[in-house]
Amino acid sequence: QHTVLVWFPCVYLWLCAPFYFLYLRFHHHGRISISSLCCAKTALGLCLASFGLLEMIYLLVKRSRDIEHQMVFLLSPIIRSLTMLLAVFVIHLERMKGCRSSLFLFLFWTLAVVCSLVPLRANIQAVDSLRSVAFFACFSLQLAQLILSCFADHPFNSNPCPVEDASFLSKILFWWFSGLVVKGYRSPLTAEDLWSLREKDTSKKIISDLEREWSMQCAKLQQCENVKALGCRITEQTQLLQKLRQEQSSGFLLLRTLARTFGTYFLSGTLCLIIHDAFMFSIPQVLSLLLGFVRDEDAPLWKGYLFAFTMFLLSCLQSLFNHQYMYACFTVGMRVKTAVMGLVYRKSLVISSAARRTCTVGEIVNLVSADTQKLMDFVVYFNAVWLAPIEIGLCLFFLWQHLGPSALAGIATVIFIFPLNGLIAKMRSKLQVQMKYMDGRIKLMNEILSGIKILKFYAWEKAFKERVLGYRENELKALKKSQILYSVGTFPCVQIAFAMFGVYVLIDEKNILDAQKVFVSMALINILKTPLSQLPFAMSTTMQAVVSLKRLGKFLCQDELKPDSVVRAPYSDMEGFTVNLTTAWFCVLCRISVKVPHGSLVAVVGHVGSGKSSLLSAMLGEMEKKSGNITVKGSVAYVPQQAWIQNATMRENVVFGQEKKESWYQSVLEACALLPDLEILPARDATEIGEKGLNLSGGQKQRVSLARAVYRKADTYLLDDPLSAVDAHVGQHIFDRVIGPKGILKNKTRVLVTHGLSFLPQADLILVMADGEITESGSYTELLNRRSTFSDFVKTFAGNEHKESSTHRGEPVNELHHIKALNRPLSDSEQEQDLEEVGKLTEADKAHTGRVKLVMYVEYFRTIGLALIIPIVFLYAFQQAASLGYNYWLRLWADDPVINGTQAHVDVKLAVFGALGFAQGIAIFGTTVAISLGGIIASRHLHLDLLNNVLHSPMSFFESTPSGNLLNRFSKEIDAIDCMIPDGFKMMLGYVFKLLEVCIIVLMATPFAGLVILPLMLFYTFIQSFYVATSCQLRRLESVSRSPIYTHFNETVQGASVIRAFGEQPRFILQANSRVDHNQTSYFPRFVATRWLAVNLEFLGNLLVLAAAILSVMGRATLSPGIVGLAMSHSLQVTGILSWIVRAWTDVENNIVSVERVKEYADTPKEAPWTLENRSLPSAWPQTGTIEFQEYGLQYRKGLDWALKEITLSVREREKVGIVGRTGAGKSSLALGIFRILEAAKGQIYIDRVDIAEIGLQDLRSRITIIPQDPVLFSGSLRMNLDPFDGYSDEEVWRALELAHLKNFVSGLPDKLNHECSEGGENLSLGQRQLVCLARALLRKTKILVLDEATAAVDLETDNLIQSTIRTQFEDCTVLTIAHRLNTIMDYTRVIVMDRGNVTEMDSPANLIAGRGQFYWMCREAGLV
To answer: Where does the ABC transporter domain start and stop, copy by copy (predicted)?
Structure first.
């Protein structure tokens, strides 16, 4: 009492202090200012030290005689005083080192209080009142110190994550999270309520560490490959083998990199799991002692209470360590997700062009969505792969101790289960082709969303819908097989107890099954079920993770752009750059040698596919260089042939990360002819441009793209045909003001790819390209004088071109493009709105608030159908009834009296026991299969509804909804509906019915337990309601913040060449980091919420264990060991059961949010029906092709000005009509109205005297044809791109290709018509894509053809061929041409001149010119009259 109990805490502090000081020396977190908590701890410490000194003085004065014989009495207060002073020193050292909470001192004060409990009892009974008062004061101060050590000092920064500064106790019990739970219960959480990420969880920290490690690992691998390659000649075959080897080992390489980066923290979690297992296996041993106590009537009562409290303590410690392990796993999982996303994103910015073509945007998005999720699951379940067999071994060892050799029967059953589980896991991993189908589906959906306008124009939605559903059916088939195989693995677990008990009683009739043997064995078998059920899942997860690691590794090991392919030299006045290279991109360029002086204008001309764009790509370093060298001096700006526009405001697109300088910015906008556009945009340059520039016309996009380059003030400009998409005189304006000798880039080096002959005389140097070579070069006059191919070509085509594009001297440029949907002039009411709001176009993904509505559950169950729901509930009830009978039968058997050392009717008992177990096994298998099938049925319906809703949506929907939001629905949300919801329901129903069984059994044994069960249930419900409100909202916030990640990935991959050319990679990487971090700020509290709930609930559940144990001890006189064993073994399960119920329920509620998000698009506006059953059209409609507008009016949305105002006109059979007009005149609106992309606000359009508003959209759109401005192709065969419905013969397809001047090109391809087009048709040039669109029109050969500047991207010779093809092949058809080049419509029957939505003139071109109206002035401006 005066020695060991006093000295033990002091010895702990003095022995551990040096090591703790050493730890603090290397872990400095910054000094903490003195707080009231620190002052209180110091004051209490000094008081305790002074109590020791006072006791020493008291002993010297009052007990000097005793001290002479017992020096130990004097020694104890001296040691205690010095220890308290050391504790005060530690408090202040921790403060100076930034330690906010101390585990070291918490353990010291805990030991001090525990060791004072025995003297406390002695002092209560003591006579010496003064000493007792002193002891009580001292004990109170120690207790106060213990309580204070549970709190932590708080920092003074904005919204930090409280875990950083939580006390040790708060960390292990997750109390630091309670504040957010309460806040979430009071009002729905918003993103502002969430804590900022800890520094070690941020993308910046994680990715920099991982990138460094990954580079080292890759360098080592490359070194090994180089060593292997030494001595052998490196042929192409050797390189290919080397690459294949690298791809195969890349998955393991990535795993090793992740392990080296995150392994230490993961191992700390694994240690917690091992400690958890030690406590878990201790509980059955204590249960055995408790049952022995119940059977032994002479045992003292205190033993029973000791066993009861020990079980309670072990259960609590088991819970604590389990959840610390889970917390560590989820934290590592979160960091792995951040790391992998970062690596994939950075790789997508440096991947070579050849490698980029092998993986589509959809596949890259899938890598960061589905595959990162698989890796996160792997982190959580990996330990089960090696630990589960050890747990199984320990269970069988303890069972051997209780049942002897009969445990071998259990081992035999487990040995049978192992290979079965292994076989099932292997078969399920083969079914991972589901991932392949999912990849294909997401990739196809991405293309559908990118080319939705073309799908609508051509009425191809049904064909593409069938392709998506084909992938989906294969995906669900694989999922169904996988779920049935999983169900087979659940069946044998029930038979372990039957095998062991059966063998035990049959091998020797003297073997008695008493309560101790039965229920301790059952407790061990219950432990055994966990690793047995976890193992197949863990193996399956590991197999999936291996597949994902291989996919990620393969992508991360793809070839990168070589930085040395272009030498970047500092800026020099002498030369802009030097090119002298032999390069290959499918052998496109060869023998190129050219030098460009600084400040010169170089024009690159040639036919479609001659290698003009490839030359610019080579200058940017985008192509693989075979030999030679290329030098670029100074900075570079690049304008691609197809404009890449960000989903941001126009200002952000032009400034592109640079500082905004107002005067220069205005000059750039004026030069690029963008100022008149600003007048029409709702919020001027603050207007948000839709994804991929959806709400801008082709010309506007190209001018924004050019403005971005001009604003950059670079030294060298690479311009890939930027003038093709704009009107001729707008092109001339831009050439004069920007590119030409007097433009704002006049002192810069400019390389201009162009088809416009009128610009060539002003070029300093012209490069003529053919078949990837520069065939001629020189100035315009030099080339003409040579009388070569170029001079012949110029003489043939210069006439028309020169007339059309000669410099005009008219009014300022305002012949700009039509501005679509949301860019119309606003009404007065709308102009009052805030500019930012007006300019906003895309709608961010919104999070719903509050609990998920009941209607969502009804919707989900309705899709499954009552016919399947009733059998599922019945099967669950039957399964639990069989389980109750099975356990109660064991209790009766255990309590059966022993007569002459044996029990009666053992065979019958065993047979009934086996039958009940078998019935339970069958029911488990049945419920698992039924729920999985129900989930697949629901998933199929919901996906189909989502697909139908999206495909039936109007174009305005796609303009305002980012594709990332839609892709998120089709990938992550559908994946949750496929797997997570059925698994959640499976788990929840199983545990709800199990809970009913436990309650029945515990109440049968100890009815008074009802007094504990009822309050516990109420408390559970209370905590659950707190938790679910917060958890659901966190799930929604996490889902909403995930969409921008995918949208940004999508955008970056498509614009990678532009981002690289401008050197903006660091800015885009920062943006990606910020989006990922924003997502993780809601993911982190989401998984901590589950831990908070589980710890609190399991502590409450452990109270039931304590209640059942104490009531059993109190009532041992009336209770049989069998009923106590049954009650105790079941009450031990209740903690887990209750925790799993709430977790499963929350998983269901969290994931039912996916149903909510998928169903969101059911309520958005839809297009008119595709077909009308009661309105059948003649198969040959339209036969003549007459079009009649009757007082036709069009509005983009209510409240906006009229786009078309009461148009009345008629187009006769076989007429060729040109449509011209200035910006916003309504040219494109007319075409959109004919195809009903926009519905009429008033009036009608008749085609062959049929009101188009009264027929189905597909009937209309499939009978008329458009050749659009932007040529869009889809991945798949060339034949599919021409004829997705397979409605034409090969001969017809070849004929169409011949007329479109593509026959020679296609017949030269290895696969001919089956040539695989890459995503967006990227493996064809822009001109070739435009010709494919022409071939589509020729194949359909409808009576009405609409052309929207269909020849902008082709050279003049091809343009001439196309125009002649259209004139000959569509001679019998009605042709409407929205004209940008007026010379193309001068021989048309009639021209319609539009202005502000009205038809101002309509007659033959000759008559209109003669009438000297608006058309005459337009022709005069263009130099045609």
So the answer is: 561-796, 1189-1421
What the block records as the tokens of 119 is 């003297």
Which residues have CB under 8 Å from 87's CB, separation 6+? 13, 45, 48, 105, 108
Per-residue pLDDT of 1336-1365, as tens digits, reads 888 888 888 888 776 655 666 767 777 788
* Residue 699, CA distances (Å) to 19, 241, 754, 997, 1223 in order: 72, 47, 15, 72, 11
How far CA 230 is from CA of 234, 235, 803, 1283, 1289, in Å, comes to 9, 12, 65, 52, 55
Cβ atoms of 1229 and 818 closer than 8 Å: yes
Cβ atoms of residues 483 and 427 within 8 Å: no
C-beta of residue 1195 within 8 angstroms of C-beta of residue 1214: no
Q: Which residue type occupies 3?
A: T
d(CA 791, CA 970): 55
Task: Give me the pLDDT at residue 332, please.
Answer: 92
44/265 Cα distance (integer angstroms): 36
Identify the structural domains of the chain with CATH numbers, from first to last.
4-156 (no CATH), 199-559+851-1162 (1.20.1560.10), 564-635+715-800 (3.40.50.300), 642-713 (3.40.50.300), 1271-1341 (3.40.50.300)
Phi, psi dihedrals of residue 75, rounded to the nearest 5°: -65, -40
Token pair for 733:
């304006």
| Mean confidence (pLDDT) of the chain | 79
Q: pLDDT at residue 426 above 80?
A: no
- Strand 1187-1195 and strand 1242-1247: the pairing is antiparallel
Q: How confident is the model at residue 303 (pLDDT cuts 50, 70, 90)?
A: confident
302: number of Cβ within 10 Å: 9
- Contact status, residue 170 vs residue 150, Cβ threshold 8 Å: yes
Average pLDDT (546-558) is 86
Q: If pLDDT is split at 50, 70 and 90, which confidence band does 270 have?
A: very high
Give the CA radius of gyration of the chain: 39
Q: How far is CA 973 from the centre of its chain?
A: 10
Question: What per-residue confidence (pLDDT) applies to 962?
Answer: 77
**Pairing of β 1344-1348 and β 1265-1267:** parallel
Q: Which of 296-305, 348-357, 484-493, 1383-1392 is predicted least confidently?
A: 484-493
- Comparing CA positions, the residue from 648, 1125, 570, 1177 lying closest to residue 892 is 1125
Which residues, 6 or more positions from 1291, have their beta carbon under 8 angstroms from its beta carbon? none
Instruction: List strand residue ranges (DSSP E) for 176-283, in order.
Output: none
Angle of CA points 1377, 1383, 1385, to nearest 5°: 30
Strand segments, DSSP code E, in 980-1092 are none
d(CA 1207, CA 1245): 10
Sign of CA dihedral 498, 501, 505, 506: positive
pTM: 0.71
Count Cα neighbours of 370 within 13 Å in the Cβ-side half-sphere.
30
> What is the pLDDT, as a whole number, of residue 1064?
87
**Which DSSP symbol is given to 1400?**
E
**Closest by alpha carbon to 1271, among 1330, 1354, 1318?**
1330
Query: Mean of the pLDDT values across residues 1059-1064?
Result: 88
Angstrom CA distances, 231 to 227, 237, 238, 244, 702, stand at: 9, 15, 12, 20, 53
For residues 1253 and 1239, is the Cβ–Cβ distance under 8 A? Answer: yes
Ranges 83-87, 124-128, 1115-1119, most confident = 83-87
CA dist 901 and 988 (Å) reads 44
Residue 4: burial class (beta carbons within 10 Å; 0-12, 13-18, 19+): exposed
Residue 6 has pLDDT above 60, yes or no: yes
Q: Give the angle 787-792-795 at the CA atoms, nearest 5°.
A: 115
How many C-beta atoms lie closer than 10 Å to residue 473's C-beta? Answer: 12
